[in-house]
Amino acid sequence: MAFVDSHCHLVFSGFEGFLKSRLTGNSPEYYSVDLLVNRASQAGVKHMLNIGTHLSDVEGYTAISEKFPNVFRSIGIHPEYAKEHYEKFSFSEMQEIFRKYCSLGKTIAIGEIGLDYYVSDAREEQKKIFSFQLELAEEFNLPVSIHTREAWQDTTEILEAHPNVTGVIHCFSGEKAFVERVLKTSYYFGIGGTLTFKKNIILQEAVRDFLPINRILLETDAPFLAPVPFRGRINEPAFVVHVASKISELKNISIDQVEKYTNENFFNLLKKARR
Ligand SMILES: [Zn+2]
Are 196 and 243 in contact (CB under 8 A)? Predict the structure, then answer.
């Protein structure tokens, strides 16, 4: 087995409180990057895309990608931090940082970027930072990882205004109207641990009935949203296998087929990634 975790966060700065509250008997060292990558390999997770959220994580993520041949990285400003970046940097300063890191071989995407009207009401700042990053994606010919929460109408409008950019809707939640609109574009659907939650009927039906297997990427969003049977615990790339097995059950196809398609999808979209 050789799965890909197309969306995880292996640097936990900023997540310390979350981690501390969920150690469930394990030491913090248990979640060191070395051990996370090691357990992923043992579980058959061959490649990982370590997703940036803040310009302060660029150095650390670059060091991880240099150390582990199978860990790629992205660079991006999460909507939660849009206002902070907007106030702290000029667009040309941000552009310079993106230019420096996007040119590195293992920076294979821009993300995660988008709109989140649940965590922040700085909507105008979010939209500006989002559009700015879509323009950079076009400039560098890199796919994007999209985060959208309670904002799909504005998100699709902004994406449709950048038709030359493609990517993945990360942690896709399954709303029918959104599925139809995204299917008209070339974007993929990132499916993670929430698929395994018992009451998540909307997403399970979407995966079963509407989402073609050739448009699905596997992800964990580690350390968040651990799949069943680890729900409530710290998530890690090794657990992506549980998402794959749920897709196989819902679509009534073998886990080998899920592996084959989701791998192909990943390497088709993330063109800079080398197997
Ligand atoms: Zn994420």
Answer: yes
